[in-house]
Specification:
This protein is α+β, with helices and mostly antiparallel strands. The chain has 13 helices and 20 strands. A hairpin with a 2-residue loop joins strand 10 (163-168) and strand 11 (171-176). The two termini are 29 Å apart.
């Protein structure tokens, strides 16, 4: 009995390890310490910088954009952060800043149709853009809340490479990329006053840009999201060590968030042993390229499919089917409450009519009592049942999550259980069928309401972890 007692005592002395869905929280102490000391408005002070790398959940910025709003509302804005250069694919979203690009650029990526070898060097964004004609141009225009006074451009210096012209307001700089050897190079341009726009123009010979970033050096916080739609962690491994190292040196993240797993979980065949090797090697790689920077591993979320092959795409028992509702969840309105923001014209007209009738008593006449309102309808009865061709979470997602959780614990890095914070297995069905829905009809991706919800849950767990660690000191 002595050994278990001593183990419990040692664990208690070590302090808390989990906060809701967030575990191994001690690995985040350096990041929390910087947040504690970070001023909101201090000229010349670099923002605390979170760099998130991932798949479409990261690339779409639905969740990271909402998280950015929460963080910057509390700590102050530190700029938009790191982005893939230009507009690397159709539908590219850049909340808080608008990216534009002329013709004359060849796009390469770590995954997808633009990933066929030979590939140019690529960094954290997972994309490279190479100019094909003189005068090819790209620009960023920031919203008012994302103005910047520091711009960073990362590119590839190489034999025969051309030059880039960088214009921010009245300031112009030239970045010459001709070099005896191929290597990564990042150029920082600072301006005295916050700016809205930066333009980058290729001169005569071809140049390759790997990423760019905007920051506001006034304290606060910056949250970067760089992701490739449809990608897996093995595709991020295609990025070049020297480029990633140079970019991390230039961008100086204080927390690196790794968000992959959904596409692995939907693979035709998921092999846990191979994935574990990839996960361990990429975590080790980031530790080597960004020594001392804490890492937060985001677990794969809950998602659902009807494809029978997803029942057996990973070792272990087949997942249980998900019950589905007969109608929208929470569709009825409890007595005494009013539905807000339905967007229905009849509701709007009813509200206007009700407001007009409240002004009865024209020409000095006494108001006439309104007839009693009819009783509210009984709440709709929602039944749940497993249908033919049912929804279920792919077996691969559970297997991905098991590996992520185990590796994070063994390596001592923070792990956030996204699935648990959604409500567990089959919660995606409730998020899609809810009123309002918080996920799209593919049972994988989140809409803006769901993105805000996830961001708030993640941020709440981080704040609770910070409070627990502070109290244990």
């Amino acid at each position: 009995m002595m050994v278990p007692i001593l183990a419990l005592a040692a664990a208690a002395a070590a302090g808390p390890n989990c906060a809701e869905g967030l575990c191994n929280i001690r690995g985040l102490e350096p990041f929390f310490d910087k947040l504690e000391r970070q001023p909101r408005n201090q000229a010349g002070k670099r923002p605390v910088h979170i760099l998130q790398i991932g798949d479409s959940h990261t690339a779409g910025d639905t969740i990271t954009g909402a998280w950015r709003e929460v963080l910057q509302a509390r700590y102050g804005g530190g700029g938009r952060g790191v982005l893939a250069a230009g507009r690397p694919y159709q539908g590219y979203l850049t909340q808080g800043i608008t990216a534009q690009m002329s013709s004359g650029w060849r796009i390469s990526s770590t995954f997808g149709s633009a990933s066929a070898p030979p590939r140019p060097l690529m960094g954290v964004s997972g994309f490279s853009l190479t100019s094909q004609q003189p005068g090819a141009e790209m620009s960023l225009t920031a919203d008012a809340g994302q103005m910047f006074d520091r711009f960073v451009l990362c590119a590839v210096a190489a034999p025969g490479a051309g030059a880039l012209t960088i214009r921010i307001g009245a300031r112009t700089e030239r970045m010459q990329l001709a070099s005896a050897t191929e290597r990564a190079e990042c150029r920082m341009v600072s301006v005295d006053q916050p700016s809205f726009t930066v333009t980058v123009t290729a001169e005569d010979r071809p140049v390759t840009i790997t990423s760019w970033a905007t920051f506001r050096d006034n304290g606060g916080i910056a949250l970067s999201n760089v992701g490739v739609v449809g990608s897996q962690l093995q595709h991020f491994a295609r990025t070049d060590d020297a480029v990633v190292a140079e970019e991390l040196r230039a961008y100086r993240p204080d927390l690196i968030v790794i968000e992959f797993g959904t596409n692995e979980g939907f693979s035709p065949v998921f092999r846990p042993n191979e994935y574990e090797i990839t996960l361990r090697s990429q975590i080790g790689r980031m530790r080597r390229l960004a020594p001392g920077v804490p890492i937060l591993l985001i677990g794969a979320p809950d998602a659902s499919s009807r494809r029978p092959e997803m029942l057996i795409n990973a070792p272990g028992p087949a997942p249980r089917p998900c019950a589905e509702p007969s109608g929208p969840i929470n569709a009825s309105i409890p007595p005494g409450q009013t539905r807000i923001g339905t967007g229905r014209l009849d509701n709007l007209l009813a509200d206007i009519s009700a407001g007009d009738s409240a002004d009865a008593g024209q020409d000095g006449a006494d108001p006439v009592a309104a007839p009693p309102a009819p009783p509210p309808p009984a709440p709709a009865q929602i039944s749940w049942s497993v249908r033919a061709n049912p929804l279920f979470p792919p077996a691969g997602l559970r297997a991905v999550r098991d590996v992520q959780r185990r590796v994070a614990g063994q390596l001592g890095i923070a792990f956030w259980d996204w699935e648990a914070r959604m409500g567990g297995a089959c919660s995606a069905v409730k998020w899609v069928k809810g009123d309002p829905p918080r996920m799209r009809g593919d049972y994988v991706h989140f809409n803006s309401a769901g993105g805000r919800d996830i961001a708030q849950r993640l941020n709440a767990d981080l704040e609770q972890a910070r409070t627990l660690l502070s109290a244990s000191r």
